[in-house]
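Page header: ASSEMBLY MODEL / two components / 990 residues total.
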Amino acid sequence: MSNDLKLPPKSDFSNWYTEVLFRTAIVDKRITDSRGFYGYPPYGAQILSLLEDLFISELKNTGHFPIRTPTVIPETLLEIEKEHAEGFAPEVWTITHGRDNKELNIKKVLRPTGETIIYSLFSYWVRSHADLPLKIFEVRSVFRAEPNKAVFPLMRTHEFYWIEAHDVQENLSQANKQVSEDIEIFEEVIRNKVGLPFKRLKRPEWDKFAGAIYTCAYDVPLPDGKVLQIGTTHNLGQNFSKAFDIKYEDDDGELKYAYQTCFGPGISRILGAIVSIHGDDNGLILPPAIAPIQIVIIPIPKKDWDKKITEFAEKTFALLEEKFRVYLDNSEVTPGRKFYEWEEKGVPLRVEIGSREVEANKIMLVKRFNREKIKIDFEDMNEKIQEVIDHYPEELLNNVNVELKIDSAVSYDEIIELVEKNTHLIEIPFCDNDDCVEFLKDELNVKVRGVPLFEHGETSVQECEDIATKRAKDKTCIICNERKAKRMIYIARQY
Amino acid sequence: MSNDLKLPPKSDFSNWYTEVLFRTAIVDKRITDSRGFYGYPPYGAQILSLLEDLFISELKNTGHFPIRTPTVIPETLLEIEKEHAEGFAPEVWTITHGRDNKELNIKKVLRPTGETIIYSLFSYWVRSHADLPLKIFEVRSVFRAEPNKAVFPLMRTHEFYWIEAHDVQENLSQANKQVSEDIEIFEEVIRNKVGLPFKRLKRPEWDKFAGAIYTCAYDVPLPDGKVLQIGTTHNLGQNFSKAFDIKYEDDDGELKYAYQTCFGPGISRILGAIVSIHGDDNGLILPPAIAPIQIVIIPIPKKDWDKKITEFAEKTFALLEEKFRVYLDNSEVTPGRKFYEWEEKGVPLRVEIGSREVEANKIMLVKRFNREKIKIDFEDMNEKIQEVIDHYPEELLNNVNVELKIDSAVSYDEIIELVEKNTHLIEIPFCDNDDCVEFLKDELNVKVRGVPLFEHGETSVQECEDIATKRAKDKTCIICNERKAKRMIYIARQY
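Prediction written out in full:
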């Protein structure tokens, strides 16, 4: 095999990442005059759809219904929620001209997120307590005019895919319960289906979503020590219901402002995280749930055996096809070349069929992520492979190429040391003062990520905050070395 | 029931249509400052997804793979295909400002269709004959800056849903074969799955898609005598491959421009057509394939029987749920009110369960479109209902509320008469001259729709043209009454 076929090693993360996305046909950047807007060839588009389906299924199971709303919204809507508008203003693409190149009276913008357009409809849809909880979701792409230098495929782009779920509740306790449901959905998909390590964090006050009473975020570790936010849940309280006049009549006929939450799994970023965390020097490693091809069958030719091997491979394909997404690679190239190419594409399982397999009426199953080999009787095949697939995410999680490294620091020097060791999250006693926030950002390019959520049986977000506060008791902030620490908090470099 | 609950009669088409869409929660127009951009509540969003799924399934079965490409494209791409750009220029939304409200060097536009962005990627994806045919599709919304007065929900809007399939072939004969495949896919979904009458027409030269060598279009009849185009297939020949440099190396190592076709089922418009054609004075009538609820179970209470009826209804629900999308309406309102509401929502089948049904261990099945009643044994239920559902589209098609009325005229006066009788398509001998085209448009608001395709075993589009030419032999154009007729052609008023 010629050397130019080799991927850069994963230790050269940025080059490895863009090259693996391009070679495996997940992302195609070659769109002239359109930096930050990408094409997704069939392999990438299929993975994105399978990933969306995992969330759609969980959202439907928890009583959410799909809706569709416009991509383009009037600028006036953003202005209703001033706080919110200020949050997004610099990042918004603006449409100034319409038909016949005539300037518009009311400018339009490409939606950076769905709150304003969806809540303007909620003001009509919510009438009485019988309409609540109202639970909807939308599958779509959204737009952010990120600075061009920040653009990075899947992780930070001008148009990206996500799902947004918006829920309306009668009171704060129901809203808090919804936050827990969102967290469970995230856990089910991200940990149990695609095997990613992640940390749930309550963002600090100054970094919450504009208009939220608090923001829960989901951060994953990248190979270079940075973390990436791949989703959020915001408890919006009554802030948006007051801005958009979303009121319901309660049991006693009284009109009340509703409570709201929203949940946004970032589909593009989650795929970016899967590629970055699971992949290795040989290419992608896909969890079976999102693999367009879950199993590739590769016949190993042998003199005088070819007809028998071909027949056995076809019989195997026919049986596997009943339950799995499977591909029989009958092409003319060598088995070694096939191994190489399908490993690069991240196909989770490979079935090898040679003369020994035919003779023994068995197949050889090879797991992509650790190359473990398992001999399986032809008759038990579907059942045994189902078991392997069911355990795949858990095994992946226990063998991840990029572990979430968490540590704590008791001095500024220790922070520097840990950052140099590519520690993802560093816990410190912190005073929450602006000066210290700025200092961390300017000196170390490090941001405050918040306090961990629901790690030891806590039953509310407030309780999680209280624990972080209690643990910092009698401690001094290690940045200013002056002020009392308000809480134990995680800091990190971020994408 | 109070009168304000009644829909306008369907004879008052425009009011009936917008009211039925609103009441059944398919479309919500109440977005301030955003005429032509609509919201789709859960009922509408679910129907749109089911409709998309019908096409996605056919496209996958014919070897097409999904891709995703940007919503926003640089204006420079439209300029590459001059002819094409001229076709869309006045209808394009333009983005002039990006981050921090800075004016863009290269303006961006919201894509009115996918050719330019997808073909700029095809120029990289197509290398050798081994890559062909390349068959892809994209599911998305697109944008047209239609004049505000023309806006009409689902049928003509600023953002609408469609699927576009783009295929690349080695030669013209393969491209023509692809056109036939597209027509078959349309036939399968539109006639066999949703039971709509439609006419396949080859559009006249002056009305084909800019850049195509010919355009096939699919027109359906509306209640007011107009026709609506709900999809197109364009044979693009080598026009776009030359503009976008899409070349492949053939068997002999020679570089050749590829041939291309594209196929666009208009999802929004197809739903508009289903509502318009099948619906009646009582509301929607949905074909089972796209109904979010296929069967509604309504218990008919009777003194001393209520517990038994409830149990039987629940047993029925549990059994039906295995195979169908079913809803058990246990609410407190009267059965009459339930009948009314679920009929308005277009649920294709109703199951009534009263004391007689419990006693006989049977259910009463009622078809929405003709109210036919069928008694079915409890044990045979799933099998028998499957049969009813399988025949539903065909029955709908034979009982449509709006039939496609086609007639021919031998004089201008006859055209006027037929137009007044709301005839959808009128066949006339025609000279193709600009003056006559303009005259028809200005005097009768009638447009030339083209010649019928593949109605009598023809094997090519050219053969269909030849028949239309032959049939006009020795005839004079009935508009100018001077020039020789070039062909028999269909004219119609259109949406």
